[in-house]
Specification:
The protein has 142 residues and is mostly helical. It is 62% helix and 8% strand. The protein has eight helices and two strands, in the order H-H-H-H-H-E-E-H-H-H. A hairpin with a 5-residue loop joins strand 1 (69-74) and strand 2. Residues 71-82 and 86-90 have low confidence and may be disordered.
């Protein structure tokens, strides 16, 4: 059985939600949920992130249970991260551009706090992070 189908069935069992209730909770149509459960459609990365948010689960766990993770990769900073597999045929170049944009502090903050903080609050947080980075750099340099 497909990992994504198993994941959805596990999620329905764990949350004790029917197929229709799960679709409603996720804000998708019942027909889309049906197609996902039959394997006719694939879970997209944004939908997997939404599932993690709705059910307050770590994204890595949701991605792993849905079979959307490839091998772990080491990033520039040496931190171990999981590389998400493109499950819905998303445009790889577009994803690369989005990831590249997230290297910018303000863009990353705005994206991570989208809908949770005002633009003014995001700007204040960005300035605080910049000050902290400058302070740490000053300390390291001596």
């Amino acid at each position: 059985m497909d990992n994504q189908i198993e994941f959805l069935l596990w999620l329905m069992t764990t949350t004790q939600l029917s197929q229709a209730d799960l679709a409603r909770k996720l804000g998708i149509s019942a027909s889309l949920m049906s197609r996902l459960l039959r394997g006719e459609r694939r879970l997209t990365l944004p939908l997997l992130r939404h599932i993690a948010e709705v059910f307050d689960m770590p994204q890595a766990e949701v991605f792993a249970r849905a079979g959307a993770l490839d091998e772990p990769v080491v990033c520039d900073q040496g931190a171990l991260q999981w590389k998400a597999r493109d499950t819905a045929g998303d445009d790889v170049e577009q994803l690369r551009m989005q990831l590249s944009a997230l290297r910018d502090l303000r863009t990353a903050l705005a994206w991570s706090l989208e809908g949770k903080a005002s633009p003014q609050m995001i700007e204040k947080l960005a300035r605080l992070v910049e000050l902290e980075l400058e302070y740490n750099k000053t300390i390291r340099e001596g």
